[in-house]
Amino acid sequence: MGKVIGIGFLGLGVVGSQVISYINENREYVKEVYGMEFSVKAVYVRDINKKRNIDTSDVFLTTNIADIVENPEIQVCVECMGGAGMEETYKAVMKSIQNGKHIVMSSKKCLATYGMKLMEASNQYNIQLRFEASVGGCIPICRSLMQMSKGDEIRKIYGIVNATSTYVLSAMENHKISFSEALQQAKAKGFAENNSSEDIMGIDTLNKMRILLRLGMKVDVDCRYIEPVSIENIDIEATNQAGTIIRQIFYAEKTSAEDICCFVGPKALNSNHMLQSVSENYNMIFVESKHSGLRAYYGKGAGGRETASVMFDDLIDVLQNKYRFEDIEPIICNCLTSENLVL
Ligand SMILES: NC(=O)c1ccc[n+]([C@@H]2O[C@H](COP(=O)([O-])OP(=O)(O)OC[C@H]3O[C@@H](n4cnc5c(N)ncnc54)[C@H](OP(=O)(O)O)[C@@H]3O)[C@@H](O)[C@H]2O)c1
User: Fold this and answer.
1) What is the 330 CA–ligand 1 centroid distance (Å)?
2) Ligand 1 close to Cβ of residue 50 (< 6 A)
3) Distance from the CA of 24 to the CA of which of 59, 135, 213, 268 falls in 20 to 30 A?
4) Is the full-model pTM beyond 0.70?
5) Ligand 1 site, residue 89, Cβ cutoff 6 A
6) Which among 316, 246, 238 has a CA at the least distance from the CA of 276?
7) Positive or negative, the Cα torsion across 146, 84, 308, 299?
């Protein structure tokens, strides 16, 4: 028998249930390769009686968050809670860190808002914190940024990280339908949540950009100075006639040690730009650095199984490797407009 590692879950929805499936499917692999055995000790949910899409007969479901954050049998806390309870998520994760538990997180909204405090606490308490699922779904972009920017200076990070807006814009273009029809279609196909205003307004993309800039450029952008542009009032016909297509993008460029320029919103892309090929629930992120030049990351940005795959990797990573967050400087950014941004 391998060393038993107690795992606690915060949330058991689309993503959480798939992480448990990964744990069950990979028991032998984890034992053989890592000499460990994962044991799910408790799972925090809102409603114990809700029908789940995995068998929970041998899982201890609880509505008492202390059963996870105060449980001495739990060494790793896996957070898969909806963004709706951001403060609740933050408090639970912070308490878990203070109680010596490693953390695997998914909530980008919580990380964008409280990530600095959580990263500082994880350094202070000597705890491993990972959040690959928070940006880009199954694309290992956080891990790459954490490991790649040692001797090379990252100058630009940009791309598409919101599946809802991509779906809506491509449906408007391809099927000549209105914004509201396209949004309804996105909801019906599972590419958009019921309340998707943060996706449409660019707030979700802004949150994800903040997380990436902390890891890649070691800066914390003050969001009060960035106003994302909504995709709601786009003239699709005019952009198509001009031979371009529109996507909601984010763009950040470090122009000097103290200056950064950012943009979040719809951008008309020329037909030869790689971002043009991004559709449905795919994401694409470009990272440009001083010595290595341009690198691209592409893959599915949403989906329970896809997202759970990187959380399972994070779960192993927090137990195998040590990462200490470097100092991250607060920075005020200059806002670019879609027109003066050249891709
Ligand atoms: N779905 C994706 O494709 C995807 C991709 C990347 C990242 N993420 C992130 O992963 C996290 C989980 O997403 P999901 O799709 O699995 O969400 P979900 O299906 O809505 O599941 C959320 C889970 O959290 C529990 N919960 C407890 N307190 C809550 C609260 N105050 N508000 C909301 N939920 C609460 C819910 O309990 P009950 O089940 O009892 O309601 C549920 O089990 C989110 O932060 C999301 O941003 C999701």
Assistant:
1) 29
2) yes
3) 135
4) yes
5) no
6) 246
7) negative
CATH 3.40.50.720 domain range(s) in the chain: 3-130
203 lines ligand 1 (CB under 6 A): no
**208 catalytic residue (yes or no):** yes
Structure tokens at 43: 């799972």
Average pLDDT of the residues of the chain: 94
Class of domain 3-130: alpha beta
Q: Give the burial class of 343: count Cβ atoms within 10 A of its Cβ; 0-12 exposed, 13-18 middle, 19 or more buried.
A: middle
Pocket of ligand 1 contains residue 65 by CB under 6 Å: no
Ligand 1 atom closest to 306 (CA): 3
The token pair at 69 is 């954050």
106 lines ligand 1 (CB under 6 A): yes
Sign of CA pseudo-dihedral 212, 213, 219, 224: negative
Task: Give 325's DSSP letter.
Answer: P
pLDDT tens string 182-191:
999 999 988 8
Residue of 101, 108, 208, 254 marked catalytic:
208
Burial grade of 29 (CB within 10 A; 0-12, 13-18, 19 or more) = exposed
Cβ pair 184, 81 in contact under 8 A: no
Taking 80 as the threshold, does the pLDDT of residue 126 lie above it? yes
Answer whether CATH 3.30.360.10 is correct for domain 142-301+327-335: yes
Q: Please report where in the chains the tokens 């739990």 appear, as a residue.
A: 74
The boundaries of every CATH 3.30.360.10 domain in the chain are 142-301+327-335
Ligand 1 centre to CA of 12 (Å) is 7
